[in-house]
Amino acid sequence: MPELVLSHVTRRFSGHTAVDDLSLTVRDGEFVCLLGPSGCGKTTTLRIIAGFERADAGSLTLDGADITALPPEKREIGVVFQSYALFPHKTVAENIGFGLKMRGRSRAEIATAVEQALALVRLDGLGGRYPRALSGGQQQRVALARALAIRPRLLLMDEPLSNLDAQLREEMRVEIRRIQHSLGITAVLVTHDQGEALAMADRVAVMSQGRLQQMAAPAEIYEAPATAFVGHFIGQVNVLEGRLEQVDGRTGLLALPGGLKLAGAGQGLAAGQAARAMVKQERIALTRAEPTGLPNRFPCRVVERTYLGGGIAYRCAAAGASLTALLPNHPLFERFAPGDAAWLGWTAADCTIFPG
Amino acid sequence: MRGSIRALGRLAGGLYLLLLYLFVMGPLLFVIATSFNPATSFPSRFEGFTLSWYAAILERPEFLAATGTSALVAALAAALAVLVAFLAAYALSRQGGAGGRGAMATLLASPLLVPQVVVSLAILQLASSFGIGTGFWGLVAAHAVYVMPFALRLILTGFARFDFAVEEASRSLGGGPLATWREVTLPLLRPSLVAGFTFCFILSFVNLPLSLFLTGPETATLPIVMFAYIESRIDPMIAAVASLIVLAAATATLLLDRFLRVRLVD
User: Fold this and answer.
1) For A78, which of B170, B172, B184 is closest by C-beta distance?
2) Residue of B nearest to A77 (CA)
3) Closest Cα in chain A, distance from residue B42 (Å)
4) A105-115: per-residue pLDDT in tens?
5) Where are the beta strands (DSSP E) in chain A?
6) B6 assigned to some structural domain
7) CATH number where B241 lies
8) Which of A151, A288, A355, B262 has an alpha carbon 20 to 30 Å from A265's alpha carbon atom?
């Protein structure tokens, strides 16, 4: 099974650079999610891999062979589109069999492959229907089956779950992962939904402004963001701006304008430098008693309480800084009301500092 | 009380519609009725029922020849117009909303804005200034230019419901550019292409002003022959010819509506 390598891929549209010197490798059998806000270049990257868009500079290899100049029909890459792009004038079976028909396979061979593909996506018996007679979730499965029926070297998915309702989306996350795993196929999925990326990917590639910010396993992306963008973009994050007072190797003390001093960790830190600390909301403890075990602990006042079902978010004010703590909605955790006095606390490891 | 007001409203609406239809269709009904009238002058009182005027057409070879010419001109002009309009609509739609799309569509519709007699005369003058005849193909070209905007309108409407991602899907599945057009693009646009062709055919078939200066004895179209015929005399035979044209056009329109669910008139 093949490996996909992008080296220094660049794509410019009139006036702006959609993909900027992007280099990344998708390993054999790996599931990679391209994650980023809209306009970050992730969809353009996918379209370049598929061959729908050309790269202005850089090259792509698949399975060791250069595919940069190859038209899409010669790439053997399956694509699942955001709109599904099923052929409305063809039946489900004809849709799934289309790729094999283009390859001149025999009718019997196509029929067998279509049956297998339908079984794989659990749509047995629906081959005679037209796409419009299917639900959104079923159309999604047909799109997946159609892309897989050609036994592609690589499977690309462009926001495949964005048109499904929340419950079905969760279900299809698991389903797509199951199918990808059972076939051992190399896959790239584009999404703006970090929950989706963290839940599905072996590795997540976070993009911003056409550039690759970080590519790593979901836990690493979440726990150890490599850039300020990733730190800010992933999770529910408190961002606190200040000046570094003291730096000792990878740890530093950040002084906020209001007087708070935060102990945190980061790379490339220098004393006197302006910097930002990022603390994930759920990593902040909110207690009535002083959390003496935590290096970062500050008295605060609860300003606002937002009930989220699974959790409760408290926005708190501490010496001119505003911080939100997310507590599980569980009887073991204390409850607060706006106006209550309390303590905020977190570890130095949960406080990532980025220069600038 | 409220129910009876509603019924009254419905009645008034129905009456309005009936009058409207009568206004549009009335003259046609009169012409069709006349074609069965044995009286030799036109218009005249109704004196009975006869099919002799239809039989009389068969004795006028120039009408049969002109029908053939008209059909051939209309078929070629419609085919040409649909081809041009399809390519233009494809480019305009693919481009999305960006970059002068509206201006381009207006430009392509501009032949509608020039009086046809003027176009006809202009083509004749241009051709004679180069010392060439316009001939059969000149006539076809003029008709194609005139009917193209109508085809463009219809085909653009077809493209409005076309998701270009299906072309990419086809390419990624191994369909080359030609196979993709054959298997995906053309089948999905077939209804609007057929409708465009039919509409253009009818428009060209019944067109008089464009043909006025561009037809010779060899290329006389049916409207030209009819025009020449009624210059010398008026009898119900011309009503019979007109009735046949109406019948053919109505049949084509109804077939489109029935089988392709395409409405030429909304």
Assistant:
1) B172
2) B172
3) 53
4) 999 999 999 99
5) 4-13, 16-26, 31-35, 57-62, 65-66, 77-80, 154-158, 187-191, 203-208, 211-216, 237-248, 251-255, 261-265, 274-280, 285-287, 296-307, 311-318, 321-328, 341-346, 351-355
6) no
7) 1.10.3720.10
8) A288
